[in-house]
UniProtKB/TrEMBL annotation:
Belongs to the class-II pyridoxal-phosphate-dependent aminotransferase family. Histidinol-phosphate aminotransferase subfamily. CDD domains: AAT_like. This is Histidinol-phosphate aminotransferase. Pfam families: Aminotran_1_2. GO terms for molecular function: histidinol-phosphate transaminase activity; pyridoxal phosphate binding. It comes from Halogranum gelatinilyticum. Its EC number is 2.6.1.9. The lineage of its organism: Archaea, Methanobacteriati, Methanobacteriota, Stenosarchaea group, Halobacteria.
Length: 361
């Protein structure tokens, strides 16, 4: 007995974890700087940690109230109706719900390449098919309506990532409007704002007032620092009414995650410090890394280093874990997450010495 034919389903390739690398290389995890998964280098908000502790004794019940409270709070913050807020297990969960809500078997979606692999994976789970639009290094991975529309052929969902992972490039708000206006009536434009907090551009969430074909995904994994709890959400068109109730896995997000997210939303200071430090780190990486870097609006910088696998491996041996972008189809690039000031400086020092060695070898 076998599962269905999954040969089209490429497994997700995550950034490497501290424990994993420490075990493999016999290093102390304490001495590793992990800049491979765009997590928050300051960890979670202390308020979220406190909420997790307090919730520990309540995990015997289903998360009815906390789920509703989080939905309500997000709706209020973003000026949405509660039905427009789809809380989920990570933004990845929201991507699944959107695919579930939209796709009939064989419907096509359009995703960026290079790009976040989960869009395509999620569509395939839901019996959809995947087409791609290309971002290219020769124009710094620019994201424009032309980039997308040149490849657009009536797909049911078009995914826009802004800031884009792994390149850091952005769409302007005008561009997003233009795309939403140019696609067919039954095409949903999903704007993935996983890194929205780091960008100086405004969110597209308020466009939902004017457009009935835009959804926006957001996460607590990055700027809010609670990736381990898996909590995110989508803002969906007003007209969808009770669709969430029809597609969601019951109690999509867990009690601890909902409580932590509620607390994290009350800690503006933590997000501010995180965003400011990321901006500093981006500049530091651009200015000091001995390799060409691409302009980034996220909490990471993409750099051209030649042999990305070799550089990422050497860097890891020196205690700095970065992301080899070969699995994104960029075998000459590494992605370095923004660390603390100390962590970012260490990464630059380690990488520069590796790049010198490679150049001299
Ligand atoms: C990290 C990330 C997400 C979502 O992550 P979750 O942990 O599932 O919330 C979504 N899109 C992109 C582009 C990301 O990098």
């Amino acid at each position: 007995m076998q599962p269905r034919d999954l040969s089209d389903h490429a497994p997700y390739v995550p950034g490497r974890g501290t424990e994993e690398v420490a075990r493999e290389l016999g290093l102390d995890p304490e001495n590793l700087t992990k800049l491979s998964s765009n997590e928050n280098p300051f960890g979670p908000s202390p308020k979220a940690v406190e909420a997790v502790r307090e919730t520990a004794s309540d995990i015997d019940v289903y998360p009815t109230t906390s789920h509703a409270d989080l939905t309500e709070k997000l709706a209020e913050k973003w000026n949405l109706a509660p039905e427009q807020v789809w809380v989920s297990a990570g933004a990845d969960g929201a991507l699944d719900y959107l695919a579930r809500a939209m796709l009939e078997p064989s419907d096509r979606i359009l995703t960026p390449t290079p790009g976040f692999s989960y869009y395509g994976m999620s569509a395939r789970y839901h019996h959809g098919e995947v087409a791609e639009y290309e971002l290219t290094a020769d124009n710094d991975f620019a994201q424009t309506p032309e980039t997308v529309l040149e490849f657009y052929d009536g797909e049911r969902i078009v995914y826009l990532t802004t800031p884009h992972n792994p390149t850091g490039s952005e769409f302007s708000r005008k561009d997003i409007r233009e795309i939403a206006e140019s696609v067919d009536d039954d095409t949903l434009v999903v704007v993935d704002e996983a890194y929205g907090e780091y960008s100086e551009r405004p969110s597209s969430i308020d466009l939902l007032d004017q457009y009935d074909n835009i959804a926006v995904t957001r996460t607590f994994s990055k700027a809010y620092g609670i990736a381990g709890l898996r909590i995110g959400w989508a803002a969906v068109p007003e007209a969808w009414g009770d669709t969430y109730a029809r597609v969601n896995t019951p109690f999509a997000a867990n009690e601890v995650a909902c409580r932590a997210a509620l607390a994290a939303l009350d800690d503006a200071e933590h997000v501010e410090k995180t965003v400011e430090t990321a901006a500093w780190a981006r500049e530091y990486l651009h200015d000091n890394l001995d390799a060409p870097t691409y302009e980034s609006a996220g909490n990471f910088v993409l750099a051209e280093v030649g042999d990305a696998s070799a550089v990422a491996e050497a860097s890891q041996r020196e205690g700095v874990i970065i992301r080899d972008c070969s699995s994104f189809g960029l075998p000459t690039c590494v992605r370095i997450s923004c660390g603390t000031k100390a962590g970012t400086k260490k990464a630059v020092e380690v990488l520069n010495s590796i790049l010198t060695e490679v150049a001299e070898a």
